[in-house]
Amino acid sequence: MGGIRERRLGRPGVVVAWVILAVIVVVAVVPAAVAPHDPYDQDLARRLSPPVWLPGGHWDHLLGTDGVGRDVLSRIIFGARVSLVIGLLAVVVSGALGVAAGVVAGYFRGPADDVIMRVADVQLSFPFILAAVAIVSVLGASLQNIILVLGVTGWTTYARVVRSMTLTLRQREFIEAARAVGCSHLRIMARYVVPNLLGTTIVLATFALATFIIAESALSYLGLGVQPPTPTWGGMLAEGYLYLRTAWWITTFPGAVLMVTVLAINVIGDWARDVLDPRLRNVL
After folding, report:
1. Of 226, 245, 213, which Cα lies nearest the Cα of 80?
2. What gap in Å lies between CA 49 and CA 63, rounded to an integer?
3. Residue 82 pairs with which residues in a beta bridge?
4. Is residue 6 included in any domain, yes or no?
5. Domain residues for 257?
6. Cα 221 from Cα 237, distance rounded (Å)
7. Comparing C-alpha atoms, which of 47, 67, 68 is closest to residue 58?
8. What's 278's DSSP letter?
9. Could you read off the pLDDT of 172-219 as tens digits, one per residue?
10. CATH number at residue 35
11. DSSP 13-82
12. How many alpha carbons fall within 13 Å on the CB side of residue 82?
């Protein structure tokens, strides 16, 4: 058993992913302590300065500057906070809605199951990003609306998985015993069903975090996310679009950070699935 656990926790890719994610989280929590410049400060005299290792680069701006002279590195650092806050809060909203809906549908079955699953089917018939764009266009682009949109459009995955697991759990002996001693439906769901869904929910939430970070960046790129001048990774990609030939660093570095962050989260999600899924415990 110790060897299995060591193989799970000691895989180099997982360790690197945890280190990357830890660095991103620390940077997002205290960006002002890490960023070399204010992300809103403009220096037109050094606009479109290249990274420090290229001719014309300056040590004051390690990753160069954008079209109005703002420091690219500082904006990437401050953008991490926006991406993680939106991703985490959207995961909380979608997870709460999806788990509640899935438990109710799987436990009570019947009309409740039919209504909840048909609503989920209707929502799944629309592409995720298209639904998000449509809703944001109506509600307006703001931090709160982005979180609400991502949370409301992301609950279906939780609901379908949780429902199938609840259908199995409700037939287990300990659930039958709880009913026999007079426990209410609410108490059974809260005390016996939901705790047994925790591992799967954590895995789903991990992958959803990566999805929501990408979705927020996509909305920001389309101009429907958090509005300028607030720095976001997707917004930086959009701002650098016109300078791809002359100032590639404006889009390359935030795009690379976005890619590495999402990759690290997905690796951690795979690791969490391996650790928390009892069906894999004897395989690893």
Report:
1. 213
2. 9
3. none
4. no
5. 11-280
6. 6
7. 47
8. G
9. 888 888 888 878 878 888 888 888 888 888 888 888 888 888 888 888
10. 1.10.3720.10
11. HHHHHHHHHHHHHHHHHSHHHH-SS-TT---GGGTTPPPTTSTT-BTTBTT-B-TTS-BHHHHHHHHHHH
12. 28
